[in-house]
Specification:
Layout lengths: L7 H18 L14 H4 L5 E2 L6 E2 L6 E5 L1 H7 L4 H6 L5 E5 L3 E5 L16 E5 L2 E2 L13 E8 L3 H4 L6 E7 L7 E9 L3 E11 L4 E12 L31 E13 L4 E17 L10 E18 L2 E19 L10 E22 L2 E21 L2 E3 L5 E17 L4 E17 L12 E17 L2 E12 L3 H4 L2 E3 L5 E3 L7 E14 L4 E13 L2 E8 L2 E8 L2 E14 L9 E18 L2 E4 L6 E10 L4 E10 L2 E4 L13 E4 L2 E11 L4 E8 L18 E9 L1
Parallel strand pairs: 6-9, 25-29
Antiparallel strand pairs: 1-2, 3-8, 4-5, 6-7, 8-9, 10-11, 10-39, 11-12, 12-13, 13-14, 14-15, 15-16, 16-17, 17-18, 18-19, 18-20, 20-21, 21-22, 22-23, 23-26, 24-25, 26-27, 27-30, 28-29, 30-31, 31-32, 31-33, 33-34, 34-37, 35-36, 37-38, 38-39
Length: 710
C-alpha cells in the first residue's frame, strides 16, 4: 500500500520562491544593513524563569535537579518531534517505534510508548496543564519556546504519574512588534519540511501567535551499517537488512493563540492546536514479524487561561480539553465488481478535560501556592472485522475522574541563602467502567480512593555560585478504571473484574546534589545522587470464585533504583566577554542499581538503560556562523525476547541490548540578518541501533534548511 504524498521537488521550488519574496518584501532594506552582534546580556541568561513548580521561579532558586532546553537548543537540533529533542538533551530512556509512536521516562522508570493501558511514570505538561497524550511523537516542536525537565517525584504538585519527573512544554507567547519565521527543508529518504510561525502585538491589548508545519518522508528509510562501540548478536541488529520497508509517513500540525489584556493586572489567553498524521505506514519489526500496517494519528487540544495579580495574590484559572485518536487501518482485497477499500479495524480514543485553579500568595520573601485541580479521562476502543461491520472490543470503555487539592510553600531565609519548599497534595479519584457497544452486562459501579503525596526540598548556597540541594517525596501512579472497578467479558470470552482493593503503584525518592553555576564565567556543573524505593506493581492474574474463573489485577513486586546524574558545561566565550560562544557540554546518568523483585526473584529492570549521556560542542559567532556537534550514548538494557517463536535467539528469554553511540552535526550560515541556511547530518557515523529491539532507527541522514526571519 502506498499513500499519496506531496511531491517534494515541486513544493520545494514553489515555497523557496515564496520565502525569497518574503525576505525582500518584509525587510526590503535588510541587505543594506550591517548584521548586528548579539547582545551578550541576551545570550547570558542568568535569570532563567521556570514555571514547572506551578509558579514562576528563577532557576537558581529551585532546590531540585532542573534542566531547561532552550529555543537555541531546539533550533540547533531541529527535532522531528518532542521525543527526538528529549533523547538528545535530557538523559531520558526512550521506547520508539517507526510510525509516530514513542515515549520517554527518567531516573530508571520504564518508558511508556504511548499506551493508555500501561502505567505512565512521567508527568507531561503543556504550559503547566496536562499535555493530553502519552505519545510524544505527536508533539510538534514548531510552536514550543522551551522545555523544562524537572527530575524527581512530582505527585505533590500534579498528582498521578510523576514518579520519574515532569516535562513541561512551554509554548511561544509573542508580544511587541510582529515578527515571524518561515523555513523549508529537504533531506535523505525524500524528507520535506515546511514551517511558518508569526506572532506579536496587534494593539496595546491584543497579541497573538500562529504557526503551521508540514512534514513528509516519502521514501522508506535506511538503517545504519555500523556499530561503533558494541558487538551485538547479528540476529538482534541485522547487518544484511538495510531498509525498514513500509516506513513512509506525513504529518501536518498547527497552533494558534490569541491573548487579550483585560486591564493592568489581568489577561486572558485562548489557544488551540492540532496534529494530523493520516495513513502512517508502519513497518513492523525489521525481520517482518508482526506485519506491515497503516494507521491514522490525530490530536486536538484547546485551553483558556485567565492570569493576573491582585495585591499579594497571583491567580491562575485554566480550563482545558484534549482528544487523542489512533486508528489502525486495513485494506480489503479488490474484486472484479468492487475496488479495494481502506477501513479502520481498531480505534483508540483518549479524551481528557478539566481545569486548574491556583493562587500564589506573596508574604515578604516567602510564597505560598495552593489550588484545586479537576481532571477527567475517558478511554474508548472500537473494533471492526470489515468496513462498517463492528465487533466486540477487547475491553470495556473506562473513565477516571480526579479532584486534587495541593499547597506548596517557597520559604526563603538567611538573605535567600536557604530555601525550603514543603508541599502536600491529596487526590480523591473515582474509577468506573462505561456502557460499551457490543460488550454485554458491563458493571458500571464506581470505586473511590484517595492518595496523599507529601514532598520536601531545600537548598543552601555557601556562596552565590555554589549550592547544595536535596529533596524527598512520595509519588504514585493510579490504577486505571479497568483495573480498579467493574466487571465485563472481553473479546476472548474471559470475565475481567476490577479489584476495588487495588493500591496505586507508589515510590519514595530522595536525592542530594551539589551545583556550581557561574554564567558570567561560562561554567555550570551539577552532580546529583538519587535513591528510589518502588513498590506495589500492578499485574494481571487469574483467579477462581466458586465455578467462575476470571482475570483481575493485584499489587505484586517491588524495585530498588539508585543512580547518579552528572552535568558539566563550559563556554570559552566568557574569556572574550561573549563576543562569541564556544561551549562544551556533557550530561550523563548512570544507574548503580535498578532491580525488580517479583515472586521472590530479583532481575534487572527491563527497557531501562544502565547509562545515558549527551555531549558535544557548539559554536556561535553571533554574526555569520553557528555550528553544533553532539553525541548521544545509550547504555546496556534488557527486554523480554518476544521473537523466540520466530527463531530469533530461541533459547534466550531476555535480550541484552548492547550500547550505542549516535552523533549529529549542524552548521548554520547567515546570508544576512534575515536569511540563513542550515546544513544537517543526523546519525553522522551511520550507527545501527534501536530504541526497541527489532525496530531499528534511521541511519545516516543529510539535510538542508533555508530559514527566513521577518
Amino acid at each position: 500500500m502506498k499513500s499519496n504524498f506531496v511531491k517534494p521537488s515541486k513544493s520545494f521550488i514553489r515555497m523557496a520562491g515564496l520565502l525569497a519574496v518574503l525576505s525582500t518584501v518584509c525587510r526590503p532594506d535588510a541587505a543594506a544593513k550591517e548584521v548586528a552582534k548579539t547582545d551578550s546580556a541576551d545570550y547570558v541568561a542568568d535569570e532563567i524563569v521556570v514555571s514547572s513548580t506551578r509558579t514562576d521561579e528563577k532557576l537558581k532558586n529551585i532546590p531540585r535537579k532542573v534542566e531547561v532546553i532552550t529555543s537555541k537548543d531546539i533550533e540547533a537540533l531541529d527535532p522531528d518531534n518532542a521525543t527526538e529533542l528529549l533523547q538528545k538533551t535530557a538523559g531520558v530512556d526512550v521506547i520508539e517505534y517507526p510510525g509516530v509512536l514513542s515515549g520517554v521516562s527518567m531516573r530508571g522508570f520504564v518508558p511508556n510508548y504511548g499506551s493508555y493501558l500501561n502505567p505512565q511514570y512521567v508527568t507531561y505538561l503543556l504550559d503547566g496543564r496536562p499535555l493530553g497524550t502519552y505519545n510524544l511523537a505527536s508533539v510538534d516542536m514548531n510552536m514550543i519556546e522551551r522545555v523544562e525537565v524537572i527530575k524527581g517525584p512530582s505527585s505533590a504538585l500534579y498528582g498521578s504519574k510523576g514518579m520519574g519527573g515532569t516535562i513541561n512544554f512551554i509554548t511561544k507567547k509573542s508580544r511587541g512588534p510582529i515578527k515571524g519565521t518561515a523555513s523549508l527543508g529537504y533531506g535523505s529518504f525524500e524528507t520535506f519540511e515546511g514551517n511558518a510561525a508569526v506572532g506579536g502585538s496587534i494593539s496595546d491589548r491584543f497579541d497573538f501567535d500562529i504557526g503551521f508545519r508540514y512534514f513528509n518522508q516519502g521514501e522508506d528509510y535506511k538503517v545504519g551499517k555500523n556499530t561503533l562501540i558494541s558487538n551485538p548478536d547479528p540476529q538482534i541488529l541485522e547487518r544484511d537488512i538495510d531498509t525498514m520497508h513500509n516506513s513512509t509517513y506525513s504529518t501536518n500540525s498547527g497552533m494558534m493563540r490569541v491573548g487579550y489584556r483585560l486591564n493592568d493586572n489581568f489577561r486572558v489567553d485562548l489557544r488551540g492546536a492540532f496534529f494530523n498524521a493520516p495513513s502512517v505506514h508502519t513497518p513492523g519489526s525489521i525481520w517482518g514479524y508482526y506485519g506491515e500496517g497503516m494507521k491514522d494519528v490525530y490530536r486536538k487540544t484547546a485551553d483558556l487561561s485567565l492570569t493576573g495579580t491582585a495585591g499579594r495574590h497571583s491567580i491562575k484559572f485554566m480550563p482545558y480539553w484534549s482528544k487523542d485518536e489512533s486508528n489502525n487501518l486495513k485494506q480489503t482485497e479488490a474484486t472484479q465488481n468492487k475496488p479495494s477499500k481502506i477501513y479502520p479495524y481498531y480505534l483508540g480514543d483518549f479524551e481528557e478535560y478539566g481545569f486548574q485553579l491556583q493562587d500564589v500568595i506573596a508574604l515578604g520573601n516567602h510564597r505560598i501556592t495552593g489550588g484545586l485541580d479537576y481532571d477527567n479521562q475517558t478511554y474508548k476502543t472500537r473494533r471492526y472485522s470489515a468496513p462498517d461491520v463492528a465487533q466486540r472490543p477487547y475491553s470495556a470503555d473506562s473513565r477516571t475522574s480526579d479532584f486534587g487539592l495541593f499547597t506548596q510553600a517557597a520559604l526563603s531565609f538567611l538573605d535567600n541563602r536557604l530555601i525550603v519548599t514543603p508541599g502536600v497534595r491529596f487526590d480523591a479519584t473515582t474509577f468506573g467502567l462505561l456502557d460499551t457497544p457490543l460488550v454485554p452486562n458491563v458493571n458500571t459501579e464506581k470505586e473511590h480512593d484517595g492518595f496523599f503525596s507529601p514532598s520536601l526540598a531545600f537548598q543552601y548556597s555557601f556562596v552565590p555560585e555554589l549550592k547544595v540541594h536535596s529533596s524527598i517525596g512520595r509519588a504514585f501512579v493510579a490504577p486505571s478504571g479497568l483495573q480498579k472497578a467493574g466487571e465485563y467479558v472481553d473479546s476472548f470470552g474471559r470475565t475481567v473484574r476490577g479489584n476495588p482493593d487495588l493500591e496505586p503503584e507508589t515510590s519514595r525518592t530522595w536525592d542530594v546534589g551539589l551545583t556550581w553555576s557561574d554564567t558570567k564565567k561560562g561554567v555550570r556543573a551539577d552532580v546529583t545522587y538519587y535513591d528510589t524505593d518502588f513498590k506495589d506493581f500492578i499485574t494481571q492474574v487469574q483467579r477462581t470464585d466458586g465455578s467462575t474463573t476470571y482475570m483481575t489485577y493485584v499489587n505484586a513486586g517491588s524495585a530498588k533504583i539508585r543512580g547518579l546524574e552528572f552535568e558539566l558545561s563550559y563556554d570559552f566565550g566568557a574569556l572574550a566577554d561573549y563576543r562569541y560562544s564556544l561551549r562544551c557540554f556533557v550530561n550523563y546518568t548512570h544507574q548503580f542499581e535498578n532491580d525488580v523483585t517479583m515472586g521472590g526473584v530479583t532481575s534487572p529492570m527491563k527497557y531501562v538503560r544502565d547509562g545515558l549521556g549527551s555531549f558535544g560542542i557548539e559554536y556561535d559567532d553571533f554574526r555569520l556562523l553557528s555550528a553544533r556537534l553532539s553525541g548521544r550514548y545509550l547504555g546496556t538494557s534488557y527486554e523480554d525476547n518476544y521473537y523466540r517463536s520466530y527463531g530469533r535467539l530461541p533459547n534466550v528469554l531476555v535480550i541484552k541490548n548492547e550500547p550505542a553511540l549516535v552523533f549529529d552535526a549542524t552548521v548554520g550560515i547567515k546570508i544576512n540578518a534575515q536569511n540563513r541556511v542550515d546544513l544537517m547530518v543526523k546519525n553522522l557515523l551511520d550507527e545501527n541501533y534501536a530504541e526497541k529491539t527489532g525496530y531499528n532507527m534511521p541511519g545516516r541522514w543529510y539535510g538542508m534548511k533555508y530559514i527566513v526571519t521577518f
